[in-house]
Write a structure and sequence with these properties.
Layout lengths: L2 H12 L4 H10 L2 H19 L2 E4 L1 E6 L25 H13 L4 E6 L7 H14 L4 E5 L5 H10 L3 E3 L7 H7 L6 H14 L2 E8 L6 H14 L3 E6 L16 H14 L9 H6 L3 H7 L4 E2 L6 H4 L15 H14 L3 E3 L14
Parallel strand pairs: 1-8, 1-9, 2-3, 3-4, 4-5, 5-6, 6-7
Helix pairs in contact: 1-2, 1-3, 2-9, 3-10, 5-6, 6-8
Bound molecules: S-adenosylmethionine and FE2/S2 (inorganic) cluster.
C-alpha cells in the first residue's frame, strides 16, 4: 500500500494526523487517493447523517464592508461595487418565502457594515425567531466584540460562520491589510464557541500564497478549535480586486480537502459551496459525493444578487428563490441524496434547540 493511502486510513481511524503527515499527504496524493478518500468520507457522512442533505437559506443582506481583504469583491476599496442594504421588511420577506419553501435555517450574511448595530441585528434576529421559532439563525457578519456576539446570541442567533481564511500568520498578512489580524480572528472563533454558538471556520482553497505548510496549519487549527461547521470553497478571482489576475483554486483539490475534513471531523456540517458550483457546473453534486452534507441556496431578492459579487461569474444570480430550491433539490436527487426540511443541527453536543 502507498504511504499516502496509509495516511488516509490513519486519518479515518484516528481523525487526526501530525503536521508532517498532513504535509506528506497534501503534497503527494494521487487521483486514486482522492477517489479513495471520497468513498471513505461518504461512508462516514452516511453513517451519521444518512442520505439527508441540509439546506440553509442564504440572505446576503448587505454588501457594505469596512474591510479591504485583497481577495474580496465587496472590499471597501472596490469602487465598482454597487452597494446595497436590504431593509428589515425585505429581510423578513426573504425569510417568509424561505419558510414556505421549507427552509428551517436562515443564514444572514454580509460585509462588516457599521449600519447594522447590535441593536438593529438583535431586533431582526428576535423578530425572525418570533415568527419562526422552529428555525435556526446563522450569522456571518465578520469580526465583532465578544459582548456583541453575546447580545446576538441572547437575541436568538444559534450559529456563526467566520472563516479563519488561513491559520498561518505570514499567509494571513498577504491576504489582508495591516489593520486586520489573524490573532483577533481566531480569538473571535474561540469567543463564539465559548458563548455557545455552533461555530464554523474555513478557508478558500488555492488562495494566493497558500502553501502546503499553511494548509497543514489549517488542519491543525481546525483540530484544536473543533468547529461544528467548516466552509471551504475554491478561491475565485474578482477582476476589480488586487487579486483579480491570480490563478483560481483547484476544483479537484477542493473535493479532496472536503473528503479529508469529513474524515478528520466526522460529524461536521460541511457545505458544498456556491464557489464550488461556480468553478464546475456540477461542483455541488461532486461536493456531496466527496463528503459534504449541506447546501446553501440563495434567498436574497433577485435584484441584489449580482451585487454580492465576491468573485466573478457567481452562479444563481438570476433565479427566484423557489427555482433555486427546486434546482438544488433535483441536483441532489441526481446523486442519490435528498434535501430535508430540518434545522440541520450538529449531531453532537453543543446544540441549542429552540
Ligand atoms: N464579512 C463576513 C466575514 O468576513 O466572514 C462574511 C462575508 S465574507 C464575503 C464570506 C467569505 O467569502 C469569506 O470568508 C471568504 O472566504 C469568501 N470569499 C471572499 N472572496 C472570495 C473569493 N474571491 N473567492 C472565493 N471566496 C471568497
Ligand atoms: Fe468584507 Fe469581503 S472584505 S466581506
Amino acid at each position: 500500500m502507498s504511504v499516502t493511502r496509509e495516511l488516509i486510513d490513519i486519518l479515518r481511524q484516528q481523525q487526526r494526523l501530525e503536521k508532517g503527515q498532513w504535509k506528506q499527504l497534501l503534497s503527494q496524493y494521487t487521483k486514486e487517493d482522492r477517489e479513495y478518500a471520497a468513498i471513505l468520507a461518504r461512508e462516514v457522512a452516511d453513517k451519521i447523517y444518512g442520505r439527508d442533505i441540509y439546506v440553509r437559506g442564504l440572505i446576503e443582506f448587505t454588501n457594505y464592508c469596512k474591510n479591504d481583504c485583497y481577495y474580496c469583491g465587496i472590499r471597501r476599496s472596490n469602487l465598482h461595487a454597487s452597494r446595497y442594504r436590504l431593509t428589515r421588511e425585505e429581510i423578513l420577506s426573504c425569510a417568509m418565502k424561505g419558510y414556505e419553501l421549507g427552509f428551517r435555517t436562515f443564514v444572514l450574511q454580509g460585509g462588516e457594515d457599521a449600519f447594522y448595530t447590535d441593536e438593529k441585528l438583535c431586533q431582526l434576529i428576535s423578530e425572525i425567531k418570533q415568527r419562526y421559532p422552529d428555525c435556526a439563525i446563522t450569522l456571518s457578519v465578520g469580526e465583532r466584540e465578544k459582548s456583541s456576539y453575546q447580545r446576538l446570541y441572547e437575541a436568538g442567533a444559534d450559529r456563526y460562520l467566520l472563516r479563519h481564511e488561513t491559520a498561518l500568520e505570514e499567509h494571513y498578512k498577504r491576504l489582508h491589510p495591516e489593520n486586520m489580524s489573524l490573532k483577533h480572528r481566531k480569538q473571535c472563533l474561540y469567543d463564539l464557541k465559548e458563548i455557545g454558538y455552533q461555530v464554523g471556520c474555513g478557508i478558500m482553497v488555492g488562495s494566493p500564497y497558500q502553501t502546503i505548510d499553511s494548509l497543514a496549519d489549517d488542519m491543525l487549527f481546525m483540530e484544536a478549535l473543533g468547529p461544528h461547521m467548516i466552509g471551504i470553497g475554491p478561491f475565485l478571482p474578482q477582476k476589480d480586486t488586487p487579486f483579480g489576475g491570480k490563478e483560481k483554486g483547484s476544483f479537484h483539490f477542493t473535493l479532496f480537502l472536503l473528503s479529508l475534513l469529513r474524515l478528520a471531523h466526522p460529524k461536521v456540517l460541511l457545505p458544498a459551496t456556491t464557489a464550488l458550483g461556480t468553478i464546475h457546473p456540477k461542483g455541488r453534486e461532486y461536493g456531496i459525493l466527496a463528503g459534504a452534507n449541506v447546501v446553501m441556496p440563495n434567498l436574497s431578492p433577485v435584484k441584489v444578487r449580482d451585487k454580492y459579487a465576491l468573485y466573478d461569474n457567481k452562479i444563481c444570480t438570476g433565479e427566484e428563490a423557489a427555482e433555486c430550491r427546486g434546482c438544488l433539490e433535483q441536483r441532489i436527487k441526481s446523486v442519490g441524496y435528498q434535501v430535508v426540511t430540518d434545522r440541520g443541527d450538529y449531531k453532537g453536543i453543543c446544540t441549542r434547540v429552540g
